[in-house]
Amino acid sequence: MASNNQNKPPVLSNNITKASPSSNKKKLGVDEVTCDKEQKFGAEKMVGTANNARIRQAFSVVNGIQDLGLSSNPASNAGSECGTIEFTREDVEALLSEKMRYKNKFNYKERCENMMDYIKRLRLCIKWFQELEGDYAFEHERLRNALELSEQKCAEMELALRNKEEELNLIIVELRKSFASLQEKLAKEESDKLVRGLDSEFNVAALDSLAREKETRLNMERSHASLSEDLGKAQEELQSANQRIASINDMYKLLQEYNSSLQHYNTKLQKDIDAAHESIKRGEKEKSAIVENLSTLRGQYKSLQEQLSTYKASQDEAMRQKDALVHEVASMRVELQQVRDDRDHQLSQVQALTAEVIKHKELAVSSEDLEARCASQSNQIRSLSDQLAAAEEKLEVSDLSALETKTEFEGQKKLINELRNHLEDAEYKLIEGEKLRKRLHNTILELKGNIRVFCRVRPLLPDDSSGSEGKLISYPTTTEALGRGIDIMQNGQKHSFSFDRVFMPDESQEDVFVEISQLVQSALDGYKVCIFAYGQTGSGKTYTMMGKPGHPDLKGLIPRSLEQIFQTRQSLLSQGWKYEMQVSMLEIYNETIRDLLSTNRDASRLENACNGKQYAIKHDASGNTHVTDLTVVDVCSTKEVSYLLDRAAHSRSVGKTQMNEQSSRSHFVFTLRISGLNESTEQQVQGILNLIDLAGSERLSKSGSTGDRLKETQAINKSLSSLSDVIFALAKKEKKEDHVPFRNSKLTYLLQPCLGGDSKTLMFVNISPEASSVGESLCSLRFAARVNACEIGTPRRQTSMRSSESRLSLG
Ligand code: ADP
Ligand code: MG
Predict the structure, then answer these.
(1) Is the pLDDT at 200 greater than 70, yes or no?
(2) Which-ligand-closest: CA of 697?
(3) Which residue out of 507, 543, 663 has the highest number of ligand 1 atoms within 8 Å of its CB and is therefore the one to mutate?
């Protein structure tokens, strides 16, 4: 049982040992018991720890705590711990409430076996329970002993304490008595002292006794204190002892409860055992019945076995038959499949054959067509082969002809090349011819020596009074006079004139310029060129010279000439020619020169007006003209020139309401001085281009004018008559010394070098087609014819070598 002590008997002993192992050998002390009480409940909470597993198990039985699943299969634990099997309350209950269930109620053998197993388990349970009971009884006994012991101890302690208390009480009583006597004595002594205050000896003795009394009193007090301390201690001990007793009592009660529950459990188990015995008996009865049944069943089984064997034999036979049949079926199926395939094949063949039959029928029809077609096609083929033969023949022929054409082509090629060469030669010759023509033109002019005259008739303008132009002016169409003759009717009389060129009204500015371009060109070659426009007001002088402002197509001779000069200058650059150009523009109005390009006209006018030097015309030895104070502008592009022309036109119109009125009463002189230098040949040229828009020539009709108009008319008359005088004088001139009245007018004096024989002079006579202007027109034409007849000399080119002659001073 000692070995069981550690495992079985639950709780207390185990806990006690754990709490204080030293107390294991001696009897349980009061101290240990009190401690255990607390620890026991602590242990209860330590669920699942290895040490306390068993304790909890058993204790759960006691306390009725539901703790399932710790040892649900008691048999499995058998022999694992000290050869005993443990049960919990649940296990036991499960065991008791277990019911026998059978698949076959009459399987007595199985029932019997189960029963035996059940009985075995019940026995094991009972055995375990008995052991447990014994353990509990032992434990109970032990605890009771411990309780008695502690009670005894307690009683002893109480007794001892009571004795001590009595003793102490006695001492206290004694001490109180002595204290009272001492106080009495003290009182007595003090009264004595008062009575016998003067007796010193007695006093000394009394003081001594007093000191002694005090000492004894102190001693008494000390002993009293120690005794009261002892009493406190004893009381404390008593209290603790009482507490221990109370705790032990509690423990005892608890144990008693535990014991009673164990007893209760025991009785229950006893009942269970009885029930188990009864069931065993019943089981045995049933077993015997089952055994009987079994024997009868065995007989039945044997007969059934026999039947089974016969059935098996018959089944085997049937199986064999079935296999054979299956085999047969398979072979039949294969055959069937073959038959099916055959059938499908046959069907497809039938379909193909029917299709073929249809086709054949169709073919039979189409073959007839085909035969017919064949016949026609063979005919065609025959004809085609004939054609082919013919084509082949043709091809041969054409091959031959191709060869011929090829040779011809090559011949042509050669011819073309030759022609090309010829063309190049011709072009070269043409250029040469052009050069020659130029030279010849100049020689002709030189040989001719007269002033050339071009006539230009302007078209009728919408503003013009309607006149029968066709009747008044006509142009002869004879080959001789074509483009050179003009007939004008006046008073039924026809006057015929012929000039170097007559421009009809429909001829454009371009047509006019083409005719004079050669003349302009010669200015670059070093000639002095002078082009006048003569005619009555409104006949188209300004139109011819300047053109219509704002209409590029209607540009006049001046802008066109300048364009050409600048273009030629550019092309001559490659030949080494470099040109410098200077432009001046002036107006002669009432015999005074006005600078049209001057920017500070007033200042210079004021300065030179007083000494008469303003715009004085001077000619130097080399025949160059110079006008003092005249603005001369270097130009190198048409843009610059057109800007200057605009400026001049503006100056000319300043302060005047009717521009044509003003311009018709003044001569406009545009001068371009050209100085060229060829760097490679060291050749220098000096050319001058004068383009003059003269004042209106209708002087005769204006004879009746007065005032300013008279003055203007007189001035115009003077200058124009001077011009004609100069021209006629030049024509008549036989000797160099003969006088030419250049100085009679500013215009003639200014143009002296240009008119003096060595210049190329051209006059445009402008004619208005208006019927009212016929008289004036006739006058102009007569004047022009006289001019045209004049021979003024041979134009001379002004060229020099740089080394021999210094450059000219211009302006
Ligand atoms: P002028 O200068 O002689 O007084 P204009 O040159 O001013 O005369 O010409 C007078 C008018 O006749 C202008 O309106 C001008 O446009 C026009 N005119 C002159 N000649 C022609 C022509 N050949 N073709 C068309 N219109 C012309
Ligand atoms: Mg004019």
Answers:
(1) no
(2) 1
(3) 543
